[in-house]
Write a structure and sequence with these properties.
The chain is an alpha/beta fold. The protein is built from 8 helices and 8 strands. The protein has a 5-stranded mixed sheet with strand order 6-5-4-7-8, with helices on one face.
Length: about 230
């Protein structure tokens, strides 16, 4: 024992050595010296009695809360970030790995951890994740040999890259586009996202059609292309 770390009372100088330890007695403020005073007479019978005071009790100094191992300090935030685990789950996994640490200690370590800032989803990632539910519509002007400029309106499926619907008009208008959307997407086949330009015709027609289509549900919406 390191007598500089805890206080030790010794009785007797010869004979077999006996260490007196008792959970309740050693936990009291008076320490083992007073709690084992009745056994002191054994020292006169050629016994060496050793009575340690537990750290923080009796005359032993309080060492404070034990420090968490550096490896555990690294594992707690790592488990939380990589697996989205809470304190109880992390505590269980640490015990499986052979680490002895309290649940309250794990909770305090998580509380001190700065919040993880999630990187905003990029436009490319959005298109990749929702490609099967995204369609795009646009106009394309076509010059004829008679110097007329009809407008070709089309809908493109993002997932398979194919034209789902198209039509031609000399006078594009919002109501005309609404009718094309109705023909392109019956009630049971409305996609989740529609990508379109910011012009008034596309925005007004898309808002009107999507806003009156029940099958679109909560997931439906219009995404304005940049």
């Amino acid at each position: 024992m390191d007598q500089s770390a805890i206080h030790i009372t010794r009785w007797g100088h010869a004979g077999p050595r006996v260490i007196l330890v008792h959970g309740g007695a050693q936990g009291s403020e008076v320490g083992g010296e007073r709690n084992f005073s009745a056994q002191r007479a054994l020292a006169d019978r050629r016994w060496q009695l050793v009575v340690p005071d537990r750290p923080g009790h009796g005359r032993s100094p309080d060492p404070g809360r034990p420090r968490i191992a550096a490896e555990v300090q690294e594992l707690i935030p790592r488990f939380a970030a990589e697996n989205a685990w809470g304190a109880r789950k992390i505590h269980t996994e640490l015990e499986k790995l052979g680490f002895t640490v309290g649940l309250a200690t794990v909770s305090r370590s998580l509380a001190k951890r700065p919040p993880v800032r999630q990187k905003p989803q990029s436009w490319r990632t959005f298109l990749r994740n929702h490609r099967d539910g995204i369609v795009a519509m646009d106009f394309s002007a076509v010059s004829t040999v008679h110097f007329r400029v009809p407008y070709v309106w089309f809908v493109l499926a993002h997932g398979r890259r194919h034209v789902m619907h198209f039509n031609v008009t000399a006078n594009p208008a919002a109501q005309w586009v609404v009718q094309q959307l109705r023909e392109a997407f019956p009630e049971a086949s409305v996609p989740a996202y529609l990508v379109h330009d910011r012009d008034s015709i596309s925005s007004k027609s898309a808002d009107e059609h999507w806003g009156h289509t029940e099958s679109a549900g909560d997931e439906a919406g219009c995404t304005t292309d940049k």
